[in-house]
Amino acid sequence: MARQVCSAPGKIILFGEHFVVHGSKAILCAIDKRVRVTAQRQGRNTISIKSNMLSTKLHPNIPYRIVDKRTRPFYYIAQSLGITNVAINIHSDLPSGAGLGSSSACCVATAGAALSLSDIKRSILDVSINAERTIQPNSSGADCAVCTHGGIVEYVKDTPPKQLRIPIPKDLKLIVADSGINHNTGEMVERVRHIAQKHPKEFSALSKKADSLVQMVTDSINDIPKLGHLARSNQLLLERIGISNNALRQMIQIADRHSYGSKITGAGGGGCIVAISDETNAHSTLNALTDAGYNSFVAQITKTGATTGALHKVG
Ligand code: PMV
């Protein structure tokens, strides 16, 4: 029986997380760690979902809202595309709960594989954002956008993503360090929503600053020291909206000593930081974070977004 494959990259939010949920711009890039999903028709009228963390078989007529959160987006994708007899297999290189786009890349890759089995014509991005919103109703959709398109993407909620058609800066080295603290995106988004409601004027001023930072980034993407400086400015905004903590601040302090600048990437509360560096300081940044006990790596930006089958680009 037909077996469809789709692979999608993980991501780093370079600038603008959280503020993007409230209408500001964000800039994200796809990274060279991927999720690969296969979807295959099976004889039984069952939606089976398997990954390295779970294995479940579900009747295809259950309301998706009552399905366990860990499998809900994938179940929703199969059900909404009318695929009632499918085995979905998920293999991920990405740590989950670290802000590197594991859940979005899984949604994108599952949407890509399932759409190839279905007669329904919808875009991967549309299906994956809806799937992600079954667990994060307020998701901006930014993560799914970059996991679908690859490269560097500028994103505004509920508008088509704009792929920045610029050469990826050759010397740019993104050092990612994992705090080892699992984060819960929904809780952090809710925390920021409370702050925005309680202090609307202050929050709107911070949002404007976040938006203008993104503008400065697009104007100076090849100026790596300046990008580092902008990352520091972005981090100050993230501190103000309550998503940082002592553990993350400690990592940022170490990274800032060696790189051009660093910030939390993703929802915060835990997860990862990203430091902006080049050939001259990438090693010292990586070594300092590794020596301090954090699982760290150099992330390469990849142009390759969601691909199906024999690597036909479908973004
Ligand atoms: O789940 P994470 O860590 O990739 O963060 C998602 C990014 C947020 O801006 C916090 C939420 C969103 O929907 O854009």
- Largest β sheet strand count, sense and barrel closure: 9 strands, mixed
Q: How many runs of DSSP E, i.e. beta strands?
A: 13
Order of helices and strands: EEEEHEHHHEEEHHHHEEHEEE
- β content, as a range? 15-25%
Low-confidence stretches: 310-315
Please bin the fraction of helical residues: 25-40%
CATH architecture of the largest domain: 2-Layer Sandwich
| Attached small molecules | (3R)-3-hydroxy-3-methyl-5-(phosphonooxy)pentanoic acid
CATH class of the largest domain: Alpha Beta
Structural domains: how many? 2
**Looking at the structure, what is the overall shape?**
globular
Per the CATH scheme, the topology name of the largest domain is Ribosomal Protein S5, domain 2
- Given helix and strand content, the structural type is alpha+beta
Separation of the first and last Cα atoms: 25 Å
- Total number of helical segments? 9
Average pLDDT score = 94
Radius of gyration: 19 Å
